[in-house]
Every structure is written in structure tokens, then in C-alpha cells.
Write a structure and sequence with these properties.
heterodimer, A: mainly alpha, B: alpha/beta, Flavocytochrome C3, Chain A, domain 1, eight-stranded mixed sheet, 14 helices, 18 strands
Chain lengths: 383, 464
């Protein structure tokens, strides 16, 4: 398997092993998040263990400010940046097919390039293939969008690209799950652990810093990153819901888009799109203001590229809604579908994968966690 | 001129500064450490010993003031001041609420992630996170904080204004204030002062906490006739890895796992029953023993089976395939180490409830007496790590420094490890040093502020 590993991963793994071993001896940070107790349960800190811990880490940075061994201390402990590098490497390791791992090696430029090409390709093809008197006409009737881009083309391209991408991501996550399952024996089955893992994922409990919030920008505790991530994530889910409802209207009710402003798909999509824009812009703002010390700077371009792409998907969607009764509708539709195509293609080959690996790691954590207080067990009333 | 000058940067100093500021005084806090090392030894702390009469989210069960006093009396070597200790125990009840009001987070027991303890509460993220919170609140409230600034001396005399010589880098300055609260700790990072008691061994001590606690002010005040507490040169020691940094190594450099191997001195001979102490007191037990050895170093020898049983450590072991090879790597006489191990093996009685013991061996090994026969062999070299000294100032229940005649020195207060020997004597129980610092820091800060505001009622108006 080692031929799959990126060349520098052994250095980042060795550093992560040194860091987390010291954390296991210290164990002051167990109140902040799941990483530290999970690490104590896997004292061997194998490559699989470290990939698991790295994907459990939500990069809240509370442990950086609390660390008595942070630089300039000679132990130079930097958990958030160290685990960010390992996390970054893990995405590449589990990329399927592995030939595409290069897209995650330089994820920022790669995401940007693929999105730009897809975003420009669809309008270009539209300009070439669609007669201009159709493309630049005003369409208001049912099925208006499909007069510009036929329904069959739109859905075929969408289903093929998204289907392939979901399959590719699914294979990567299944392999990741298998590998991180080799650590400590689970205390419960995956289906018993699922509610807890789902709650952790949906509430981002680990971005709560044990109750006070995260050190998003500096030593102060805020809920900004968690809030913006919720806006983006739930906005994204609302957009998915809008698409699903619209598909239901189309197939079950034979009611074709565009739908009225106060119809369910448009309301869901509008709210979701605004949430995505606020969330993506907010996350960029938080990251740009963030203290560089606990940050692995080389992982940021991947974040910015994905956030930019999601912002573009939402923004073009809302523009299309606003201007759909004008002559620009045809090109805006092509532009929006171009961004969506870029996103579909990049689902398994961009920072978007973090959600799937995070979910798998949280599920494993919920399986390994013993419930009830006092399990740490040691008595320390005297020294 | 500030109303209150606080000297120090640990929990006592920040509690004093916050209490004085909240009482309405203008406060300057002067710390000899740079900002990244602020917090004194509290930077490396984790839990705080507290009296509580009912269970709470912070701890199970209860811990009464009487129990706290009994625990202190047992360890203090007869040096505990009953009035101060009782005051500390009673006022420790207020600390969770007060510290949380200053932004300090505690780790609830419900997560199951902290060691079980009904006597101490754990800071969320440990002592540095606690100090970060206190520092942030102090800055927000307008406490003026000077780092990298060392107060050189304090005159032991009652006064309405104090002018203290100080140094910041190469710059000399004079700091003036109406009252002074001294929270500058003991002298554990001052080998010259320690060598008066420990001789040459003192040079081999590693400082576990801040390297900025040299105790010049404490030693000067004692020389000027301040009433002493505790015992000169007495200190809290634990066994740390000899590879640990000369200072600031904190909690992770401790050596553990002695029952799983043999401990030998620099000649390769055993000197102590390795199975004698397995409670949490084992760290300080070994620290004291190692400090008294010639050269202040000892080696924990383990075979591979023993290493597997030892808790995780941050330092790699020295390893060799044979005991002779290990002896050479450790600069020990291979014949003596071989003889030590052979005599041990000859005395092994593998039966019994505690994984075996020895018979006819001096010193015996009373627990975990297993053969050392699985190569490769491993060793960690141990050094005494000094945590704090047990020699300080006596104060009254208002935290005023007492002079030779037993009278308080008006305007001069002390809190934290500089006066903790009045309560802890020559002993220690986990979390109690922080309790002394927090309780007496608050008392000193408030008393200092009240004294100023009483002497200068006009000051109060412009402060609030």
C-alpha cells in the first residue's frame, strides 16, 4: 500500500506520532474534543490511528492556546497544524482511483482549474450549440430552462457525473473505515453508535471547545466558525432538498420548472443559497483573519478553492432566479450549471471529501467510546 | 502612581491583580517572565483542591474543610499554621464560582475524561488555559501588565508609598505604588540558594516549572528580618527524565514504571525497594531518593517485558541487546550491573499476590519481582526535578507580611508559593498550591486595594 502514500507523508506521520504521544502522557486537553481521549485509546499511534485522529480533529485550535508545550517551548507541540497536515495526506491516500490523488496533492489550484473549466465550458457549448434566437429570448412558460438546455442532456450529465463522484468517494471512505477500524476494539456496533455520531456531525459538537467555543481567530473563544459552517452545511442541504422536491414535481406531478417564487423548491433553494453564500464567505473571512501559528498554511488553498466554488454555485443560482425572466436567463443557466458540474466532478477530488472522512471518524469514535462517567479511572488525589 | 503593584505572574499574582482591580484600585502587574511564559508554575498545573459539601458537576462526593485540614496536617511536617490553613480551606469553597466569573473553565466529570477525584477540580485545558483566561480578564479590566520586568528588591518597612528598583532588559526603572503584593514564588530556579542545603547535587536538579523563580525578593526579605516559614532548602522533588529541559519541562518529563524494573545508582547498585510506592506519591518519593544519591542520577533498567508494562513516556529509552551493552551505554561498570541483576534473580520468589517478591535481598523488592530476561534491555536515566521550595514568608490572615517581632508590615502583602510554606510546610497534596495562590491572592489584592482606598478616599472617585 505504501506506493499510494504521498512522498512527504512519513515525515508528517512521524511528527504526528511524536506530538500525540506527548499528548497522551500529558492529557490536559481531554475536555476540548474527541481527539485526545481517542488518542489515549490508541497508544501505538500507527498510521491508521493517526489518520483516524487527524480526521477527528475539527481544527478548533483550543488545544494550541492551552498547550504548555507550544513553541517557543523546545517540545514545539502544535496539534492543530500537525493533524491538518496528516488529514491532508489522508485524503490523497484514500483517493479512488488513485491516479486522481494528484488533484488532492495541490488541491487549491486543481479545484480552481477544474471549476473554471467546467464553469466556462457549459456557457461556451451553449453559445455554440444553442441557436442564439433561442438562447437570448425571454422564456417564461413551463419548461423554460429546457428550451435552452434540453432536460435529457441536463439530467444525464448530472446523474453520470454525480453518480461517478459519489461512487469514487464512497470507495475511498469505505477503505478509510476499514483501516481505522483496526485500532482499539469497538465498545458498540456501528448502528448503535450512529445516533451519537450523527449528532456530533450535525451539531459540530467538537467545535464547541468543551463549552466555550473555538479559538477561531486568536486566543478568544467564539462560535463564528461553527456558525458559518452550519450556514454553509444546512444551506447546502436545503439546496439538495430543493432539487429533490423539484424532481418530485417534475416526475410525479408532471409540473415543469421554473417554479413560482413562493413554491417550495424556490423557497428552499433561495434560503439554502443565501445560507451557502453567508457560510462560505464567513468561513473565508474567519480563515483569513486566523492566527497563522496553529495553521498549516499549505492546507488553506484547498479550503479557499472549495469555499469559492460553493459560493459560486449558490451565487449563480440566485442570480439565475433573479433574472430568469430576462434575456440573460439562457447564459446564466449555463453558467450556474457549469459551476454545479464543476462541483459534481470535484466531490471526491477536493476538500469536500473532509465531511465524509470526518463522518467516518466520528462514527468510529462513537463506537469506541465507553459511556458513563469516571471511566478514566485513575485516582490523583495525592502526588 | 498605581494603587497596587503586584509582583509575579502566577495564579496568586493574577488573582491579586483581579481582586484589587475589582475592588476599585488601579493595578500594575510586573512579571519577570516573557509573555509566552506567563503564569509561573500554574502554567503547568492541572487541578485545584477545593472544599465542597455536596457533589457538583466539577467533582463527585464531598470534601469537607476538616478533611482538607487533616490532609494538610499529615504532610506539612508540623509547619502548618492552623489559622491560615483553616481560612484557606473555608475560602476555597468560593473559588469555582469566582474563577468562572473571571472566565476560567473547568472540566466537568460527566465526560468521564478526567481522573476520578473528589478533592480537586480540573481546569478545562489545564493551567495555561486558566492563566490565559485570567490574563485576558485582567487586560480587559485595565490591569497594566509588564512582562520581562524584574523587581530587584523590596524594603521590609511599612510605608504609604513604595518605590521599587526594577530592570527591564538593560533598562533600569523605578516602579512606584501605594501598596505592594508579592507573589514571586520560592527559589527553586536558583541553584546557588539551593546549594546551601543540597551542596553539589543542586547543580543536577532540573526545574520543572518556570525558570524565572529565583527568589531574590524572598531571600532579601528574609535577610531583612521577615518572619520565616517552612524549612530552608526543603523542596518538592519528583523523578524526571535526565533528558528533560533544564527548566519548564512540566508534567510530561516524569519517569514512571519503576516497579516493572530495577533502579540502580551511578555505580550500578540498587538502593531502594522499587515496589515500595505505587500510589500517586511515587513520583515525589523517587525524586527525593534520587536527589540524595551521589551525582543525583539513577537509572531505571527494564527488559522488554517490563517496558511493555510501563506507562507511555515521551523520551526513548537507551537500549542494548545485553545487560553489559546497556551498562556501557549508561557509563556503568558492566560487572557490577551484572552482579546486581544476578543477585536479584537469585532472590526472586515469583509467587504471591503482587507479582512476586524477593527474599534475602537488601534492599528487597516487595512487588512485581519479575526476572529481567527479555532482551533488548532498556534504560531511562532519572534526575531530580524540583517543583517548588518549602521555605518562605509568614503572613497574617489578611496576607500582610510579618516582621521579626510578629507585627504585620503595613502595605506589603504576600500570596502564593512565597508564603505557602506557612500552610503546606514541607509537604504537598495535589492541587493545594494553586488553592493557596488563588485564596491568598484574592485576599491580598482586596486588602491592598482597601488599604489604599481608605488612605486615599479621593482615589476611589477617579477609578470607577
Amino acid at each position: 500500500m505504501s506506493e499510494l502514500s504521498p512522498p512527504d507523508s512519513s515525515a508528517s506521520l512521524a511528527e504526528a506520532r511524536r506530538v500525540m504521544n506527548l499528548c497522551n502522557v500529558c492529557s490536559y486537553c481531554t475536555g476540548y474534543c474527541a481527539v485526545f481521549h481517542a488518542s489515549e485509546q490508541r497508544p501505538d499511534l500507527t498510521r491508521d490511528d493517526l489518520h483516524y485522529l487527524a480526521n477527528l480533529c475539527h481544527n478548533c485550535r483550543a488545544c494550541w492556546y492551552a498547550c504548555q508545550y507550544a513553541p517557543p517551548h523546545e517540545f514545539a507541540i502544535n496539534v492543530p497544524a500537525t493533524l491538518a497536515r496528516v488529514r491532508h495526506d489522508s485524503y490523497r491516500r484514500y483517493t479512488w482511483p488513485s491516479a486522481f490523488a494528484a488533484l488532492l496533492a495541490r488541491s487549491g489550484p486543481a479545484t480552481l482549474m477544474v471549476s473554471l473549466v467546467a464553469t466556462l465550458l457549459i456557457p461556451l457549448l451553449t453559445l455554440i450549440l444553442v441557436p442564439w434566437d433561442t438562447l437570448f429570448a425571454v422564456h417564461r412558460e413551463a419548461g423554460a430552462f429546457y428550451q435552452v438546455i434540453p432536460w435529457g442532456v441536463m439530467t444525464t450529465v448530472a446523474l453520470v457525473t454525480l453518480g461517478t463522484s459519489v461512487l469514487a468517494l464512497g470507495i475511498g471512505v469505505a477503505r478509510f473505515r476499514r483501516d481505522i477500524g483496526r485500532g482499539a476494539p469497538p465498545a458498540s456496533s456501528w448502528w448503535r453508535a450512529l445516533p451519537r455520531a450523527a449528532a456530533d456531525l450535525l451539531t459540530l459538537r467538537n467545535l464547541d471547545g468543551g463549552g466555550g467555543g473555538c479559538n477561531d481567530v486568536d486566543g478568544r473563544f467564539t462560535q463564528w466558525r461553527r456558525g458559518f459552517h452550519h450556514a454553509l452545511f444546512y444551506g447546502f442541504l436545503l439546496c439538495l432538498a430543493a432539487t429533490t422536491v423539484a424532481a418530485g414535481y417534475h416526475h410525479l406531478l408532471a409540473w415543469e420548472a421554473p417554479y413560482p417564487v413562493f413554491s417550495l423548491p424556490v423557497l428552499l433553494g433561495t434560503l439554502g443559497g443565501m445560507g451557502m453564500m453567508v457560510g462560505a464567505a464567513g468561513l473565508v473571512w474567519v480563515k483569513r483573519r486566523g492566527d497563522p501559528a496553529p495553521t498549516a498554511a499549505e492546507t488553506l488553498p484547498a479550503d479557499y478553492a472549495l469555499l469559492g466554488l460553493l459560493f459560486a454555485v449558490a451565487a449563480t443560482g440566485l442570480m439565475l432566479l433573479a433574472l430568469r425572466e430576462t434575456a440573460t436567463m439562457g447564459l446564466l443557466l449555463a453558467l450556474h450549471l457549469g459551476t454545479v458540474l464543476g462541483f459534481f466532478l470535484l466531490v471526491p477530488y477536493s476538500k469536500f471529501v473532509h465531511g465524509a472522512y470526518r463522518g467516518a471518524a466520528l462514527l468510529r469514535r462513537a463506537m469506541e467510546q465507553h459511556h458513563g462517567p469516571g471511566t478514566a479511572g485513575k485516582e490523583t488525589d495525592k502526588e | 502612581m498605581n494603587d497596587v503593584l503586584v509582583i509575579g505572574g502566577g495564579i496568586a499574582a493574577f488573582c491579586a491583580a483581579l481582586a484589587a482591580r475589582r475592588a476599585g484600585a488601579s493595578v500594575q502587574l510586573v512579571d519577570s517572565a516573557p509573555r509566552h511564559l506567563r503564569g509561573g508554575n500554574a502554567r503547568h498545573s492541572r487541578n485545584l483542591r477545593l472544599v465542597h459539601d455536596t457533589p457538583s458537576p466539577l467533582f463527585p462526593g464531598r470534601y469537607t474543610a476538616a478533611e482538607f485540614l487533616t490532609d494538610l496536617r499529615r504532610v506539612s511536617g508540623g509547619h502548618m499554621d492552623e489559622d491560615l490553613a483553616r481560612l484557606m480551606a473555608e475560602r476555597s469553597r468560593e473559588l469555582p464560582d469566582w474563577l468562572q466569573a473571571q472566565g476560567v473553565g473547568f472540566q466537568p466529570t460527566s465526560g468521564g475524561m478526567i481522573p476520578w477525584s473528589c478533592k480537586t477540580a480540573f481546569f478545562l485545558g489545564g493551567g495555561k488555559a486558566m492563566i490565559n483566561a485570567l490574563g485576558r480578564t485582567a487586560e480587559d479590566l485595565g490591569v497594566e501588565i509588564l512582562h520581562d520586568t524584574e523587581v530587584l528588591d523590596v524594603q521590609l518597612q511599612a510605608a504609604d508609598t513604595h518605590h521599587l528598583p526594577a530592570r527591564r532588559g538593560h533598562e533600569s526603572l523605578t516602579l512606584s505604588a501605594r501598596t505592594v503584593v508579592i507573589c514571586s514564588g520560592g527559589y527553586q530556579a536558583n541553584p546557588a540558594a539551593l546549594s546551601r542545603t543540597w551542596g553539589e547535587s543542586a547543580a543536577g536538579f532540573l526545574v520543572r516549572g518556570t525558570p524565572h523563580v529565583r527568589g531574590e525578593i524572598l531571600l532579601s526579605l528574609l535577610a531583612q528580618g521577615a518572619l520565616p516559614a517552612g524549612v530552608p532548602g526543603a523542596c518538592h522533588l519528583v523523578a524526571v527524565n535526565a533528558m528533560a529541559p533544564a527548566a519548564d519541562g512540566g508534567i510530561v518529563t516524569r519517569v514512571d514504571g519503576m516497579p516493572w524494573g530495577l533502579v540502580v545508582d551511578r555505580d550500578g547498585r540498587r538502593f531502594q525497594d522499587e515496589g515500595a510506592e505505587i500510589t500517586p506519591r511515587r513520583y515525589s518519593f523517587w525524586g527525593r531518593r534520587v536527589a540524595r544519591l551521589p551525582g543525583a542520577r539513577a537509572h531505571l533498567i527494564l527488559d522488554t517485558a517490563g517496558l511493555r508494562r510501563a506507562p507511555p513516556a515521551i523520551y526513548p529509552t537507551r537500549r542494548a541487546d545485553t545487560l553489559e551493552g546497556l551498562a556501557r551505554a549508561l557509563d556503568l561498570n558492566p560487572d557490577i550491573l551484572r552482579e546486581t541483576v544476578d543477585r536479584y534473580h537469585g532472590a526472586l520468589r515469583p509467587d504471591g499476590p503482587e507479582d512476586g517478591h524477593t527474599e534475602g535481598l537488601d534492599p528487597p523488592k516487595t512487588r512485581c519481582a519479575l526476572p529481567l530476561n527479555t532482551p533488548p534491555f532498556h534504560a531511562w536515566t532519572m534526575a531530580p526535578g524540583i517543583t517548588f521550595t518549602c521555605h518562605g514568608l509568614k503572613v497574617d490572615t489578611r496576607a500582610r507580611i510579618l516582621m521579626a517581632d510578629g507585627e504585620p508590615c503595613d502595605g506589603l502583602y504576600a500570596a502564593g508559593m512565597i508564603m505557602a510554606p506557612s500552610i503546606l510546610g514541607t509537604g504537598y497534596v495535589a492541587g493545594a498550591a494553586l488553592t493557596v495562590g488563588a485564596v491568598f491572592g484574592r485576599i491580598a489584592g482586596k486588602e491592598a486595594a482597601h488599604r489604599v482606598l481608605k488612605l486615599h478616599p479621593e482615589a476611589e472617585k477617579c477609578l470607577n
